[in-house]
Amino acid sequence: MGTTPSMSLSPVDIARHEFSRSLRGYDVDEVRGFLEAVASQLAQMQVQLTQAEEALRGADQQLKTFRDMERNLRDAVVTAQQGMSDSRVQVEKERETLLREARLEADRILLDGQRELSALREQIREMKVQKEAYVTRLRYLHNSHGWVLDLMENDPPLANNEPDSKTT
C-alpha cells in the first residue's frame, strides 16, 4: 500500500497504514508505534490549527463589527452635523475617540492573531525538526541493521578442523 507525497494524510490514514513486508523489513511493532505517535501528533496539530482558525475567524468578525461601528459612527456624525451644528465639535471629538479605541482594539486583535499564528508556525517548525530527527534515527537504525547483516553474511564460518580462537 503506497502513498504519494501530494496525497493528504489524516491521523487515521497514518495510524492504519500498512507497509509491504520483506525479508529485511522493519520491526512491525516499532513501525506501528511510530505511525501511531505521528498520527497522534498530527491530530493534536489539527486541533490546534482548528482552534487558531476559529480564533482568527472570531478576530475577523470583531474587526468587521468595528468597521460596521465606524461606518455607523460616520453616519451618526453626518446626521448630528445636519441637525445640530453647534454640537459638531463635541460629536467629532467623541467620534475620534471611538474610532481610535476601535482601531486600537482592532490592532490588538490582529496582533493577538499574528502572535498565535507565529506560535503555531513555530510549533510546526519544531515538529518538522522532530520529524527530521526521527527520520535520521530511523535511517541510522535501518543502516546499522544492514551493516550487521552484511558482516554476518561476509564472516566465513569456522571449519571443523580449524581451532576455535576462544579455546586456544
Write the layout of secondary structure elements.
Layout: H1 11-16, H2 28-83, H3 88-154
The average pLDDT value, as a whole number, equals 84
Please identify the structural class as seen in this structure: mainly alpha
The portion of residues assigned to helices is over 70%
Order of helices and strands: HHH
Number of helices: 3
Q: How many whole angstroms does the radius of gyration measure?
A: 32 Å
Domain tally: 1
Major sheet characteristics = none
Our measurement of the CA-to-CA distance between the termini, rounded to an integer number of angstroms, reads 53 Å
- Please tell me what the overall shape is: rod-shaped
DSSP strand content: under 5%
State the low-pLDDT regions, or none.
Answer: 2-6
Number of strands: 0
Quick summary:
The protein has 168 residues and is an all-alpha fold.
Describe the structure.
This protein has helices spanning 11-16, 28-83, 88-154. It is mainly α and 168 residues long. It has one domain (11-142). The two termini are 53 Å apart.
What characteristics describe this protein?
disordered N terminus; rod-shaped; single chain; 168 residues; mainly alpha; 3 helices
